[in-house]
Amino acid sequence: MIRLGEVQQLKVVKRVDFGIYLADPQESSVDEKVLLPIKQVPEGTQIGDFIEIFAYKDSKDRLIATTRTPKLTLGQVGELTVAQVGKFGAFLDWGLEKELLLPFKEQTKRVREGETVLVTVYIDKSSRLCATMNVYKYLEQDSPYNKEDKVSGRVYQISEEFGAFVAVDNRYSGLIPKKEMYGDIKIGDQIQARVTAVKEDGKLDLSIREKAYIQMSLDADKVMEIIESFDGVLPFNDKARPETIKRETGMSKNEFKRAVGNLLKAGRIEIKENCIRKIK
Questions:
Q1: For residue 23, what are the CA distances in angstroms to 47, 69, 238?
Q2: With DSSP H G I counted as helix, E B as strand and the rest as coil, what are the percentages for the chain, rounded to 5?
Q3: Considering only CA atoms, which of 166, 80, 152 is closest in space to residue 121?
């Protein structure tokens, strides 16, 4: 059986003017054949030879072979570039003449031309190869990472209920739980994180924040930079609305209050009725 979307070794069973036909050597019948166009046939190829090819479908939905290996094969997860956006979705450059369709319904956010997106390849209901940004079930759960390890990955989906789903190394299943969400995390972001737990099923819980005592110092430095950007007088204090604090600092109100308390204790600021002022 010729396997759509996979690299495989097939046997040359017929030669024609426009190429050669290949078949699965394990099949007793050669009724199922695939064409390798003449421009890709290796010089000196004979009937009975074996050739490694990738099977996909051309623009007329005909099964065809190529000796070129695409950037992603069936079930693999990786990053591809958007070549163009069309009527039915985006078309991705995956290293073959025919670009790979990423249907609108398989996009976790609308993508733009030139953007790099994390996807996997699947076979749709019409038996065609397509891409999807819903990579959750294709990610591995046997990562080599342990608690407190530093990792990097790409955010591929955000859930209001669970948090931000991350493909660690574009390969392993990770999650930034909702309680660990910090700043403006968006789908497509490449993030650096710390492993906070390795679940029984092998999935990783992540945090983009450092341990509390380190993070408090980092947050204090960030707040100080923001105060200085306002010429030394921040036009609100730690009693401001959470929405205001989030918009201006990217922090929750509790995080902001801890950072302000750190600066106050260090004698770097003073808190006024409607502002925070840097002490010179």
A1: 11, 18, 72
A2: 20, 40, 45
A3: 80
CA distance 91 to 113: 9
Strands laid side by side in the 129-132 sheet: 100-103, 89-93, 77-85, 116-123, 129-132
Q: Report the alpha-carbon distance of residue 255 to residue 275 in Å, rounded.
A: 17
Q: Give the pLDDT score at 185.
A: 87
Main-chain phi, psi angles of 191, to 5 degrees: -120, 155
| Alpha helices (runs of H) in the chain, residue ranges in sequence order | 212-229, 242-249, 253-265
pLDDT tier for residue 27 given thresholds of 50, 70 and 90 = confident
Indicate the pTM of the whole model.
0.72
- Strand pairing report for 116-123 and 276-278: unpaired
| pLDDT tens digits along 34-84 | 999 999 999 999 999 999 999 999 888 899 999 999 999 999 999 999 999
Q: Is 81 helix (H, G, I), strand (E, B) or coil?
A: strand
By the 8 A CB rule, do 119 and 135 touch? yes
Q: How many CB atoms lie within 10 A of CB 47?
A: 11
pLDDT value of position 213: 56
Distance of CA 28 to the CA centre of its chain: 42
- Reading the block at residue 224, the tokens are 């100080």
End-to-end CA distance of the chain: 77
CB 106 within 8 A of CB 130: yes
Both tokens assigned to 280:
């010179």
Whether the CB-CB separation of 213 and 198 falls below 8 Å is answered with: no
130-151 burial, b if ≥16 CB within 10 A, otherwise e? Answer: bbbbbbeebbeeebebeeeeeb
- Cβ neighbors of 52 (< 8 A, separation 6 or more) are 7, 8, 9, 67
What's the distance, CA 129 to chain centroid?
19
| Residue count (the chain) | 280
